Amino acid sequence: MARHGAGNWALWFGLVLAATFAALAPPRPAAYTAERIPFFESRGIDAVSYVEYRINTVAATEEAAAIKDDGPPLFGMDTEPLRAGNVLDKWSRANAEIVRELEALDRCHSNGPCPADAQRLIDLSAEGAGRSGRARVGLINRAVDRAISPVSDEAQWGVPDHWSAPFETLRSGRGDCEDYAIVKYLALLEAGIPTGDLKIVVLKNAFPNEDHAVVAARVDDQWLILDNRTLTLVRDMDLTRATPELMLDQQGVRRFIARDRSRRQVG
């Protein structure tokens, strides 16, 4: 009886131990199994490598999201929330579309319905696969710049200012500065860049005298400016002849203020 009881106890302990290890082991996301993305192979991209890349970037994004953002402030400036205004209204609508399109991208990765616009966005994001840091951001930036032809909102939509959702811009293949910026923002999110490391920035250019939208991406504790007018990635502090006005992200819109609460021109 004692020997039989000891055997049962050992079996019970082994089952509990196995269950504990199974619970602690991180699950492999089903959304990124190699057999669920055959279209990457048709484009000459190694599916298994891309799967591992996606798993690693998603894990890094989740880890970074849990860490307090204590990196260098963009342009070395403080910000304050923008409570109302035309830009806030337009960004709120665009951001809602970005959230819906992120859900569409998740369905693509889960082998669900994948619209052509979503697949196009995934392809642009995949330009950075296998790279990291500045190289990854630069390749995605270049891919988006080449996918869109510049056109004014007046010429395309017949209105002075229209902020397109990313899929809408990719469908038309045309857009102005904020359309480039919004597509880049979503493509970089899809690539696994943490949300805290991505901003859309509205600048006031000195020449020509106009508002201009760009993306700011933080890489290796430095903010890089992604401008559709040049393929060169410029550090925020090296930007010339422009005044930072507004910063847009998934938390809303903030206004730049210098540390002495006066406006500061960059460069």
Strand order, largest beta sheet: 1-9-8-4-5-6-7
Taken as a percent bin, the fraction of beta residues is 15-25%
Helix-residue proportion = 40-55%
Known CATH architecture: Roll
Quick one: how many beta strands? 9
From the structure above, extract its key features.
267 residues, alpha+beta, C8orf32 fold, seven-stranded antiparallel β-sheet, two-stranded parallel sheet, 9 strands, 46% helix, disordered C terminus
Account of the protein in words:
This protein is an alpha+beta fold and 267 residues long. The chain has a single domain (27-257), classed as C8orf32 fold, CATH 3.10.620. Helices cover 46% and strands 18% of the residues. The chain contains nine helices and nine strands. Strand 5 (210-219) and strand 6 (222-226) form a beta hairpin. Helix 5 (116-125) crosses helix 9. The longest helix is centred in the middle third of the chain and has 24 residues, at 86-109. It is globular and about 50 Å long. The model is unreliable at 1-7, 20-51, 61-68 and 261-267 (pLDDT under 50).
